[in-house]
Structure prediction request, 182 residues.
Amino acid sequence: MTVEKTDIEGVVILHPRVFPDSRGYFFESFSERDFAAQVAPVHFVQDNESRSTRGVVRGLHYQKGEYAQAKLVRCVRGRVLDVAVDLRAGSPTYGRHVAVELTGEGHEMLYIPRGFAHGFAVLSDVAVFQYKCDNYYAPQSEGGIRAFDPALGIDWRIDPAEALLSDKDRVRPTLEEVKPLF
Prediction:
């Protein structure tokens, strides 16, 4: 795999080596040994998958305290805009974000260390999205910030009036209302 740095320290785009042939393709989507050597020593403990339709925006979510999570995310079907917002106290990039288009055909992945809010917008008719987490989900530690907060400056490539959000995500606080958490 090749590792591409982003504008925010620790957030990287991974491009696996894909081996296509007449039958389809093969690639290694994760190797803990290679990941530790090239990215960070992380031990993932939970895998999640979601299916969503065009216009769905999931996020921006995080877990705080002892339940903070690093994530390795990828779109296995369709196309999404994946976003990570830096919420690390004292970080020179606090409040800034990385936005990366992930596609099922491209096989790219995004690694998001602990200390970030994460979300994605579905740009295709349907998207299947998978993520590995290095900590278990703990509902008492979940939090989020409003995806369409103007202070974030995220171009989700979706009209906010047409975005499909959960009831919880519609009423999340703004970045200004959330103090640095990590």
